[in-house]
Structure formats: structure tokens, C-alpha cells
Amino acid sequence: MKKCIAMMLVLAMTLSMTACGSKKDKVYHVGICQLVQHDALDAATDGFMDALKEELGDQVEFDEQNASGDPATCATIINQFVSNEVDLILANATPALQAAQAGTDTIPILGTSVTEYGVALGIKNFDGTVGGNISGTSDLAPLDQQAQMLNDLFPDAKTVGLIYCSAEANSQYQVDTVQAYLEGMNYTCTQYPFADSNDIASVVQKAVDENEVLYVPTDNTAASNAEVIKNICVPAKIPVVAGEEGICEGCGVVTLSISYYDLGVATGKMAAKILKGESDISSMPIEYAPQFTKKYNKEICDALEIPIPEDYVAIGE
Fold it and tell me: Which residues are paired to 296 by β-bridges?
């Protein structure tokens, strides 16, 4: 009897050690769906991967996919992740997040580079926590401060054109909000939506012809076509106030900037807690960038002869 009990104890200890070992040695498979390649989204993905590798080392493997700006491709990528039964999905940008939401309600989804989750996911009276299998980080900069930045630099302007991609719900939210602030400052504002990259040049040209200043929100399609915007605005001497640093570096004069790399790092730390079982994604609130910096594009400001206040930092410095 004693021999039998001893054998049972050894077996129990062996099973326990095996279970602990399997958990310690488990490799987590993380699918990354990034809407399009541009500096801001690339930096967020890099920060996410670096943070997760720092937390989990060789226990994490990534399947990194880029949709080349096509929301339909985001859906295809997400469906493949679901079929492969990945342990977690990073959805980088709003269309990627929307595709992930539609694709699975069980696999944990973290968004990043998403401006406003309530708008993106159709949640009324959003309180800061999505619930279910979704959380993440937001790249929303204070829109009232962006409007004030425009007013500080161009107080004598009377007309502002707001350029954005109509396919991006968060862009619509931003221009609506900024327009309300600007109209409270007595600017006349007009929205200029473009459907995709095919008509951006004609839309920007119309906006340039009709306005003294342009505002471009945090918008993935605009970011991917910043050179197009620059080549129309700079020769016409029309300044662009941008929603984020990548767009400002490409075609703008000033922005209220966040670090997308740091935003990705924050998202990676959230992912580690979820994968290690330390946090329940359903109760994790959306996290925001910790700080914002006033930045300017020296090359374009010099070309347009725009004096910049001392509290701004040149992009790249």
C-alpha cells in the first residue's frame, strides 16, 4: 500500500512538473495586421514587437502581415489568423481593428494607432473600455490643442480646408471636432473628403485653390500620400497643420506629436499581460499616449517663410 501511494505521489509530481514546464516553454503565436506601410504605423508595430520580445523572449513568434491600404485585405489576413488559431491579434489602424472585430469574438485583439475606439467600433457612449476580447492604445492627440496651434500660427487666416479620407471613420471624427473648435475661433471651414489615393490630388488641389490653411488629421491614406499633398501645397504657399508627425514630416508645417514607437511599446506590454494570464482583456481600458510635443517641419516652414515659436521642436532633432 505504501509502495502504491509513493508511486502515485511520484506520478503526481511528474505531471505537475510537466505542466509547469509546458507553460514555461509555450510559444505564443501573435498575428499582426497592419493596414499600410508608413512611418507612424511601422513605428507602432516595431515598438509592439520589441516590447513583447523583451517580456517573452523566444516564447513569442510573429506573423506580420500588411494589407497595403486595402480594408478587404485586412479581413482576409484576420481570417487567416483565426484559421491558424493565433494566441493574440495586433490590429494596427482602424480598418484592421474593424476587420478583427468582425473576424473573431474569442481571440484577444489589441488595437494600436486607432484614434477613437467608440467611433471605430460603433460603440455609443463609449466609456473607455471596449469589453469582450478587444482593448488597445489610442493615438488621439488633444484636438482642441491642434486647433489652437493653427490659430496661434495663422490668426489672420479666414478659411481652413480640412482634408481627409472618407473611408476612415476616425478621420471624419477628427475633422468634425477640429472644425467645431475652429469655427468657434471665427474661421470659415470646409471639408474636402477623398475616397482613396486615386482622387487625393484633385481634392487637395481644390482645397488649395479655396483656402488659406489646410488641416490634415491622423489619416492613414493621407500619410501614405503625403508627398502628393506636399507637391501641391508647397508651390502654392499653403501651409498644412497635421494631426501627427509622419504626415507633418511629409507635407506639413506643424503638428502636436506623439511617439508611435512608444505607443506600440505600451500595446506590447498589454499583450504580455494578456498572454501570461496576468490581465483580463475584457476589463483593460484603452491606453493613451503619455505626452505630446509641438513639432515643426523646418524645410517646409523655411520654404513658406513661417516663423516658429521657441517652444516647438524641429522634426528629426
Answer: 254, 314
Rounded mean pLDDT for each run of 10 residues along the chain, 317 residues in total = 51 50 77 94 97 96 96 97 98 96 98 94 94 96 94 97 94 96 98 94 98 96 95 98 94 93 96 97 94 94 94 90
Give me 317's grid cell: 532633432
C-alpha pair distances (Å), 295 with each of 164, 249, 310, 312:
21, 9, 10, 5
What would the CATH number be for the domain defined by 27-139+260-285? 3.40.50.2300
Q: Where in the chain is the domain with CATH 3.40.50.2300?
A: 27-139+260-285, 143-257+293-314
Which amino acid, one-letter code, is at 65? Q
Q: What is the pTM of this model?
A: 0.79
Topology of domain 143-257+293-314 in CATH is Rossmann fold (3.40.50)
Q: Are 103 and 82 a contacting pair, CB within 8 Å? A: yes
